[in-house]
From TrEMBL:
Chain's gene name: flgH
Keyword match Signal: yes
Locations listed in the record: Bacterial flagellum basal body; Cell outer membrane; Membrane
UniProt-listed InterPro entries: Flag_Lring
Alphabetized UniProt keyword annotations: Bacterial flagellum, Cell outer membrane, Cell projection, Cilium, Flagellum, Lipoprotein, Membrane, Palmitate, Signal
GO MF term set: cytoskeletal motor activity
Provenance organism: Vibrio parahaemolyticus
Family indicated by similarity: Belongs to the FlgH family.
Protein name per UniProt: Flagellar basal body L-ring protein
Annotated Gene Ontology cellular component terms: bacterial-type flagellum basal body, distal rod, L ring; cell outer membrane
Biological processes per GO annotation: bacterial-type flagellum-dependent cell motility
Stated role: Assembles around the rod to form the L-ring and probably protects the motor/basal body from shearing forces during rotation.
Length: 96
């Protein structure tokens, strides 16, 4: 029983030694590694007029799911409501 408690104590001491505390170093202003990524693309010019765009044509094996900017979506809303109303009156009179 003594050896079990000693081995637990040794294990705890070893594990506490592995859990060293790291010092927090605050980032320097304008540091390269913390800067947002630079994007090298430009958005295509918006064209007004028709819904058809030549660059958005689909091939025979392409998925028809809308995933690009400017794709036409059809939204189907399905709604169902139910209600009921009931009123009743009972009147009675008796005389003795």
């Amino acid at each position: 029983m003594k050896w079990l408690s000693k081995s637990w104590a040794v294990a705890v001491v070893l594990l506490v030694g592995c859990a060293g505390r790291q010092e927090f170093i605050p980032p320097q202003p304008n540091a390269e590694e913390y800067a947002p990524p630079k994007l090298d693309y430009t958005l295509p010019d918006a064209q007004s007029g028709s819904l058809y765009r030549h660059q958005y044509t689909m091939t025979l094996f392409q998925d028809r799911r809308a995933y690009r900017v400017g794709d036409v979506l059809t939204v189907v809303l399905s709604e169902e409501t139910s209600s009921s109303k009931k009123a009743g009156t009972k009147f009675g009179k008796s005389s003795a």
